[in-house]
Amino acid sequence: MENKIFISIIAVTFLFAGCHDTNGDSDSKNKKGGKMKYEVNKSEEEWKKELTPEEYRILRQKGTEMAFTGALYKNHDKGTYVCAACGAVLFSSETKYESGSGWPSFYQPAKEGAIDEERDTSHGMTRVEVVCSKCGGHLGHVFPDGPRPTGLRYCINSASLKFKKE
């Protein structure tokens, strides 16, 4: 009986260790605080000065806005969605659709290489995080339940985007 309890405790410990949410490997950071693989590298203090508190929470701390509250969720204008942190072109209104998820959803990025994807094991699940390929800002997640032609749903936080109307 004691062995079963011990094994259960070990199993639970490993389970929770795998759920730990990190903001990246400290070895991959440069001295200013940004990841070296990105073109735009700024310290966290610089990001805090340039972004609103909500943008900072989402883009730099991997936060999520509440569903159905984002300013761009119901946007139906034609134009381009750019990164709120660095201005990189990310998505086009041509690929935006109503997913019913509560966040702006797109079935593909504006161009190849606009976004990077990273494995996200936070909150006890495995997902694919979407980040801006220019600055590494957290945008949201991508899921395999979108419409044709890609079958993908890029579920993006409004606060991580700015809209440039045509």
UniProtKB/TrEMBL annotation:
Binds 1 zinc ion per subunit. The zinc ion is important for the structural integrity of the protein. Keywords: Metal-binding, Oxidoreductase, Zinc. It is an enzyme of class 1 (oxidoreductase). It catalyses: L-methionyl-[protein] + [thioredoxin]-disulfide + H2O = L-methionyl-(R)-S-oxide-[protein] + [thioredoxin]-dithiol. Its cofactor is Zn(2+). NCBIfam families: peptide-methionine (R)-S-oxide reductase MsrB. HAMAP family: MsrB. Gene3D superfamilies: Peptide methionine sulfoxide reductase. Residues 44-166 form the MsrB domain. The active site is at 155 (nucleophile). It holds the Pfam family SelR. This is Peptide methionine sulfoxide reductase MsrB. Its EC number is 1.8.4.12. Zn(2+) binds at residues 83, 86, 132, 135. PANTHER family: METHIONINE SULFOXIDE REDUCTASE, METHIONINE-R-SULFOXIDE REDUCTASE B1. Belongs to the MsrB Met sulfoxide reductase family.
